[in-house]
């Protein structure tokens, strides 16, 4: 009976096992490197989105501060028969305004749909990114502000001619992308004194305007607080992502 070369067989077997092991390690290393590259790409894209959101929140905070200031001025103007009618009309109208910038969520949706949140810096994920994108405060503010009783009442009392003049001459300031960034200052409606006086009288003589304005303040306070909260969160989330990039 022929003698088996057991030593050679054992060596060949070990070579095969070692080859399989090395191949699996190379494959695992390659997958890890690919995940790291994808994670860095996701992080960079998400950082850009959150930085844009933070800029938008700051614009909205400034905008709603201006709306709130108009509401405060309107309290006195609506109760003063001798007040400048243009000031009455413009401030009452501006106190009913709103602006909207939704969360920039394309990158986050891509990450979640791919099941790749594990590739992000985990301190950023733990900071509450899922809640931020699931509960868009700006959408809640929009839904509230565009249907308040005050907005509906003021815009039902002011004639179309007056509202058109406000939008054209004293309305929102927009940037090159047509995004609202504030109000025009020192504007002139270009309407006759009689037209302005009649419009102001309609607002001043309806007691429900002041009643509805009282609730408008509550909505504005909540809007400003929620936007401030978003801004604080975004600053922390951005810091967490930047820290993760450096790891």
Describe it for me?
- The protein is mostly helical and 247 residues long.
- It has one domain (36-245).
- 74% of the residues lie in helices and 3% in strands.
- It has 10 helices and 2 strands.
- It is rod-shaped.
Helix-strand blueprint:
Layout lengths: L5 H73 L6 H10 L11 H8 L8 H5 L2 H6 L2 H9 L3 H9 L2 H10 L2 E3 L5 E4 L9 H13 L1 H39 L2
Antiparallel strand pairs: 1-2
Helix pairs in contact: 1-2, 1-3, 1-10, 2-9, 6-10, 7-10
Q: Which structural class do you get from the secondary structure elements?
A: mainly alpha
Strand order across the largest sheet: 1-2
Shape descriptor reads rod-shaped
Counting copies of identical and different chains, the oligomeric state is: single chain
Q: Specify the number of helices.
A: 10
| H and E string | HHHHHHHHEEHH
Number of strands: 2
Work out the helicity level. Answer: over 70%
Into how many domains do the coordinates divide?
1
The unreliable regions are none
Question: What is the terminal separation in angstroms?
Answer: 64 Å
Main β-sheet description: 2 strands, antiparallel
C-alpha-based Rg, rounded = 30 Å
What percent of residues are in strands? under 5%
Mean pLDDT level: 89
Structure at a glance:
The protein is an all-alpha fold.
Q: What features would you highlight for this structure?
A:
10 helices; 3% strand; two-stranded antiparallel ribbon; mainly alpha; 247 residues
